[in-house]
Write a structure and sequence with these properties.
The complex is a heterodimer of chains A (111) and B (114). Chain A is mainly beta and 111 residues long. In chain A, 0% of the residues lie in helices and 59% in strands. In chain A, strands 2, 4, 5, 9, 10 and 11 form a six-stranded mixed beta sheet that branches. In chain A, strands 1-3-8-7-6 form a five-stranded antiparallel beta sheet, with no helix packed on it. Chain B has no helices and eleven strands.
Chain lengths: 111, 114
Amino acid sequence: EDQVTQSPEALRLQEGESSSLNCSYTVSGLRGLFWYRQDPGKGPEFLFTLYSAGEEKEKERLKATLTKKESFLHITAPKPEDSATYLCAVQASGSQGNLIFGKGTKLSVKP
Amino acid sequence: NAGVTQTPKFQVLKTGQSMTLQCAQDMNHNSMYWYRQDPGMGLRLIYYSASEGTTDKGEVPNGYNVSRLNKREFSLRLESAAPSQTSVYFCASSETFGDPDTQYFGPGTRLTVL
């Protein structure tokens, strides 16, 4: 069964304290892995798509990496405005176009 | 360019009432989706439309119906609402279906069924 697990469930950081979020996946053939940011009361906002192991993408203080079993979202010197829930989703070969989402990591960055 | 829009933003229903959630996108995307999001669970796919004129069931379709009205609009209908359908509903769209293609989400509809 295709599955996505995110850890930790919640993460509290001080402003400037770098860290990483993890997304582990078990799928029958990965077509793509997606990272989204979701603010309270809002819809998920697209951040990155990764397609193959070894791929990396960056945007401001965020960097996403992909291996054959997991993806990391690295946050460098976070600011309070980075506080949000970060969602990971995968598209598997057997799922047609459907995305399988993890439960998310809630990040809080304190000034 | 508004992206994906949803109406209403909030709704309270009584058990057994019906309602339709509306979704529209202005990105000329071919594929559209309906998800629900519940506390402690990931987003789950209810129905999707790979292209205009087609609809298919997702992971949790029971109690719902959909209509792909045209390329822009995709509606979700609850015929007889139940408390278990209390959730936040998100509509999404993507340019294509099947290939790894980014889905863009709307702001959501928060539905409470009493």
